[in-house]
Amino acid sequence: MITMIAAAAENNELGKNNSLPWHLPDDFKRFKALTTGHHIIMGRKTFESFPKPLPNRTHVVISRQKDYNPEGCIVVSSLQDAIAICPKNEELFLIGGGQIYALGMSYCDKIELTRVHHTFEADAFLPEINPEDWLLSNSEYHAKDPNHPFAFTYETYLKK
Q: Would you give the DSSP letter of residue 36?
């Protein structure tokens, strides 16, 4: 199973200047819980936005740079190659960025989305989730609180 996992604001904003415009600790915990122990596929810029590789996950980085070889990562040149090197009988996660999400939408079986209830300036966007192709199977709202400056909703979509 291929799962896209993302956090996006009301207008599908993902981030700006290779960083998230929000800090939601519970979303980070959910991301960690869902992706730990799995292969995570990402673009080079997403990988480089991390201070260090994420623990207990196999990093598959897509890059057009021929000499790109960060320690502890598998580097491939296409999404198809990234999917091909992952175990077939395990869930794998597309974790961004915007270009990888756009390329991967047709490959995914499930989307785990954190919808942040605010708008932000952004330069990276999540593709539209077409309701003709996707069924919202679960939705869990979280109000803003002292640790979360914005309300958000966890949404799980399944391909129809």
A: T
CA distances (Å), origin 135, targets 59, 65, 96, 104, 109: 29, 37, 21, 17, 11
| Token output for 116 | 């942040």
* Fold of the 2-159 domain: Dihydrofolate Reductase, subunit A (3.40.430)
State pLDDT tens for residues 123-148. Answer: 999 999 999 999 999 999 999 999 99
Which helix (DSSP H) or strand (DSSP E) does residue 107 occupy? none
Name the pTM for this structure: 0.95
